[in-house]
Amino acid sequence: MDRDFRSSPEHVATQTFYGALLAPGGHVFGARSLCGHEDAMHFYFIGQSFAKSLEEGVTSRLCRTGRDGGDLECLNERETRQIRLSPDGQTLAVACAGDEPAADRIELWSGDGCSNAQAVPGRIEQIDWSPDGASLLVVVAGAAADLAGIHGGYSQKVQSNGPAWLPEVRSEHGDELWRTIWTWDGNDGPQRLTTPPLNVWEASWCGSGMIAAISSDRHSEGSWYEARLSLVDASSGAVTTVHTPADQLGCVRGAADGGSVAFIEAFCSDRGLVSGLLSIFDLKTGKVETPDTLGIDVTSIEWRSPTVIHFTGARGHQTATGDYDLEQSVATESWSSSDLTNGEWVPSSYPIGASGSLFVAESYSRPPFLAEVVSGAIREVASFAAPQAQEAMSRCGLIEPVSWSAPDGLEIQGWVVRPHGATSPTPLLVDIHGGPISAHRNRWMARMRAAPILVSQGWTVFLPNPRGSTGRGDAFARAVKGDMGGADALDITSGIEALVAKGWADDKRIAVTGTSYGGFMSAWLPSQSDRFAAAIPISPVGDWYSQHRTSQIPEFDEIMLESSPWAADGAYFSRSPAFFKHKATVPTLVMAGALDRSTPVGQAEECHFAAIRSGAPSSLIIYPNAGHSIRSYPEYLDSAARILWWLGKYVRPTN
């Protein structure tokens, strides 16, 4: 496979397709970090676009649109991290890239422009207004802090003016490695409130004098798995631990009256992808309540009022939103759908007024759009569809939910995308999601790498959600613990058998791919089953022993494998693809980012080595400037093109 793939037909096809979907040159194709006020004329959001070309990557800018629709307005020219509207709806706080590489900028906007701005050393990851609107808290990651897997899974580098030959020095010490809370009253410069050895992953005001935080005593990405709920005095910075969870925490939100803290507690695998139980800590009693949320695995929460929590999450094939009333101890559902989903990485929604909500909705064949839910009905406020998107999508088939029985009788769910007019078995690509505590959803096709193009060429794409996936409750997610690559692998292969039995999939032309956990599984499954004609692991784990010793998240494999990385046997050996892959001769394309520290590049090298020693064709693709899961551009497009080429060569279509 050529190093420069840009002149290949597959690369041209990929560029043409994504160019139609994403419209480089300034078109806003997606949004996140939504906010608005019930009496305001506008909704604000961070708009995503390719300001120039696909090769130059995505830009994120502050945008707004009228509440009743109209043109999208881009309001700034800085890379924008976060936005948050003040409680009275009058002032917008904007976190964006600063003038110096190692310093971000916090801005206050009133009307159409920035009225005040200050620099903060590091990368701003979260901002929140105090309930009285008098002060901001800012969570700042140091210039060398680890990034979560969903943000690239690498350690940021401190800028150096020295010669290029100077070595990279890694150490456990240095202020630039930690995440800290800063506060700003809009007058003098922001003040740092917390200091090492306290590392703050997330924070939120709890009343106007206290801050609720998810914190740990170490700064490494893996220490997040052992984080706890703390209260930080907003004046002194004094810290009190109030809840030490059995699993992981995310999405902390303090009540405006300071009486309680809402958060999500769950068994999970990735920071930023927490999905599970709505939990409420009562500051008076010191107890944690986990109310019923109507079967919804909660992924996003916001306080609608001092006594009502708005939540969003997944329930089977559905995405759903609702409210929990603390005074009445009852949850009510406000919207649910299997035809649409919402949110960027996980389902998310922003409350508006007494009962409404705002989110970015999408489906496989419908581009993202800004949606408002009022009285249970959804209305489109603004579409992010590119002018040529509908035509490009018209050739890419339709998605439908599917269910089947695993060998042990457990119902497993997923999604299938079939080509238009398919009447006989087609080649099948199995795409396994990351995590494992995550899930495939009914998402827009631009988020599926090469899959939509393959469907337009006559392939069926299978998106299984094996045990360990979200949306099926705590027990279903926890079932993967200590058995990763066991029953979950059988869930996937039994789903393949079900599609073959339906006459949808050709049993001689089946390929498997995936990233992260999906990369591990797409390296593992061909060593355990003879079903696969090709494998394309992306950011995989090949050897759990070396993964533990080189990853930024060694705590992950200890939790998931429930075994010892120091023992000569056990799951660290028996579930390592590289120790078994040599037994199966399957053409294998392995891809990874050189910056990745979630699954370091050596894991891809081990998978490639084992494939070669099996006698199979194998190519190893390493992108020097990419991180975990190869989500950056133009690497994302190049990897999609290489998938098309590999499958075209080794899983030859008959038509």
Automatic annotation (TrEMBL):
What keywords appear on the UniProt entry? Aminopeptidase, Hydrolase, Protease
Extract the coiled-coil ranges from the record: none
Q: Which GO terms describe its molecular function?
A: aminopeptidase activity
Q: Which residues form the Peptidase S9 prolyl oligopeptidase catalytic domain?
A: 452-651
Which parts pass through the membrane? none
The protein's name: Dipeptidyl aminopeptidase/acylaminoacyl peptidase
Q: Which organism is it from?
A: Aminobacter niigataensis
- List the lineage, top down: Bacteria, Pseudomonadati, Pseudomonadota, Alphaproteobacteria, Hyphomicrobiales
